[in-house]
Amino acid sequence: MPKTKFQNVIFTLMMSFLMVYAMICYNISLNIGGMSNQVFLMAFGEMKIMWPVAFVLEFFIVDNLAHKLAFRIVTPKDRPFAITAAISIMIICIMCPVMSLIATILFKNAGSQFVAVWFQTTFMNFPVAFFWQLMYCGPLIRFLFGKMFPEK
Fold first, then answer.
1. Which of the chain's termini has less CB crowding within 10 Å, N or C?
2. Which residues cross the membrane (predicted)?
3. pLDDT (0 to 100) of residue 18
4. How far is residue 27 CA from its own chain's centroid?
């Protein structure tokens, strides 16, 4: 959808912000035993770290890798929806374990149970990241981005 490097930066900033914020809210609510209004504010503490990390990973590494993997499944001649879905799924498959690893290192105090905590974090996050990205975050950001940068 982005056509220029500048547009790609803006798109990635928007997408990574909403994905990271939602996932942090989800993980905090798991840690404190449920959702509350304070979770929305608490999430900004972790955002200072996790949003830049997610942006850098996505922009410089994951986006290219996800495209390569997606185009092993779809072709440029496929319907745009299929291409978008394939790329989004590949991004989720890469970003979820990596971001879960970073969160485990920074916030979980896993100690000798590090691998188990990382796996649990990944498996708890994956279904939420998958459905949030495909059903809400992705379509919303693509809609907003399309309004910001209408195609000629």
1. C
2. 9-29, 49-69, 81-106
3. 98
4. 14
How many angstroms separate the CA atoms of 130 and 119, rounded?
Answer: 16
CB 17 within 8 A of CB 51: yes
* Residue 36 structural domain: 5-148
* 89: confidence class by pLDDT, cuts 50, 70, 90: very high
- How high is the mean pLDDT of the chain? 96
- Cα–Cα distances in Å, from 34 out to 8, 17, 38, 120, 126? 35, 22, 11, 18, 18
In the predicted model, is pLDDT for residue 152 greater than 80? no
Report residue 57 CA to chain centroid gap.
10
pTM of the predicted protein model: 0.93
Number of domains into which the chain is organized: 1
Average pLDDT (44-64) is 97
